[in-house]
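User: I'm putting together notes for a lab meeting next week and I want to include a structural view of one of the chains we've been expressing. I don't have a solved structure, so I'd like a prediction I can at least talk through. The sequence is below, exactly as it appears in our construct file.
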Amino acid sequence: MMKSFWKVAAAVLVCILFMISSEAAETDAFTGQVIQQGATGDDVIELQARLQYIGFYNGKIDGVFGWGTYWALRNFQYEYGLPIDGLAGKTTKDKLVKASKFDKQYVNDQINKGNKFTYYGGTDQNKQSTGKSDANKGSSGAKPSAVNAPSGYSQNDIQLMANAVYGEARGEPYEGQVAVAAVILNRIDSPSFPNTAAGVIFEPGAFTAVADGQIWLTPNERAKEAVMDAINGWDPSSSALYYFNPDTATSKWIWTRPQIKKIGKHIFCN
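Assistant: Thanks for the context. Below is the predicted structure for the 270-residue chain, given as structure tokens.
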């Protein structure tokens, strides 16, 4: 009888200790600072690792809060119903801690050894490290700094696309503005269209805003954010190449295109 009692007591004690250690680990996650673009250090490493664990961040885990981290965080906030501001405050960090895991020792060991690695959940860690990264050769030891623009697009490209989004969709919900930006990017990637932002936007008859001159209105920050969200992978249009307003469209041809969805006043199609 006493042996059974002690077995049960030992099992309960193990459970309690496990719960305490789990809670402590969760409490110790991150420091109290609001992590924002331009930040560097351990909090950013954890932020990037957790975002990568659940598939939002695909860049290098380097402790530098650049554009890639910023837009990955915004996408996480959108998907989890949080305020979309690109800031990792308490609410966002708490949600991220519950949604992901962070093996601090593994991540820090990989960074300290200069290994090229990833940290995706559900993948064997032994298969995510490929040894030394060539990027470390010839390093000057200077402190890293956050980049100012996403790779692949110039500031002029981003500005022009923001002009187009503002001219075409400033009265639409934010998701609809991102969708318009995504259509521009989808056309750039399509062999059926020009392969530059300017080529797509100024293709004859492509956009109403170009025809009526609204392309030259000064875009607001919301339009610029929509472009950046699209560049960083958010495509609410579901890969559409066209869109139109059914209340004002005069082209019979556009109605023949396979329709995907409607966002705000625009129908997106292929």
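A couple of points you could mention at the meeting. The radius of gyration is 24 Å. The first helix runs from residue 2 to 28.

User: Perfect, that's what I needed.
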